[in-house]
Amino acid sequence: MSGLKLFRTDTMNSGMTEVVPRLAEIEADVQGLVEAHMETLLGVRFLASEYSTGPVHGGRIDSLGLDENGSPVIVEYKRSTDAGVIHQGLFYLTWLLDHRAEFEHLVRDRFGAMTAAQVLWSGPRLICIAGDFTRYDAHAVREHRRSIDLVRYRLFGSDLLGLETVASVSGGIQGTRRARRRTAAGAADDVQGSSMAELAGAVDEVLLGLGDGVNRVERKQYRAYQRLRNFACLCPPQRSKLLIYLKVDPKGVDLVPGFTRDVSGLGHHGTGDLEVQLRTPRDVERAQDLFRASYAAA
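-> structure tokens emitted (298 positions)
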């Protein structure tokens, strides 16, 4: 976004006017805007603002939330560049892990007992939103074994907000991409045999290879591939196919029976309104444009 220029067309005079990016007047403006639209912007359900960590710890968490996969999320904001935002967020993340029951009680009050019972503690996340970050910040997050996203914001004019992921690291995923592929293939092999195992491995490789900052989150019912928010959810293999759900608008896709299906409004595991059915390596090739579109949308 640092090199992005935005222009507004003037249809009356056939001209173009640059919309100059700017920072918020105060940090609270960014916080209020994100909290009011957190699910749309970050894929995170809002839980609490300025949450007190008690007199002993002596802090206030800017925002608490729950992401699409049930992972606890802390969001910290800075108006511009601030070297302390990562350390401050990690300080609160440590507190959160020591106060799981308190967080689950908050989730229960807001979203019900079933959601509270399914909180995914294997991958709590920290999202830092600021006017900018340094190269040292991007390096620092890779040195921590935590799930951290650095997000740069800019305001354009009076009604436009831009968000750019500067760095994204998952603390819940260890090992190389090849090891991840073996894990995905092994899980499929237990269920269906070598053909489905190879297909699951191919899908895993493609999704993880779409770009930097792709994280994978393991749930019992699905595997989520995440770039700040989910862009693909792969379900356990069925007898002769894999089902994957994408964040692609089905209305913009030429649906093919037996390959793609509109599941908006239908219940299913994972997130996304477009279901893609994969049976052969050729199907994985056919689906790659849809994978890329979903990744770009995230």
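The chain is about 35% helix and 30% strand.
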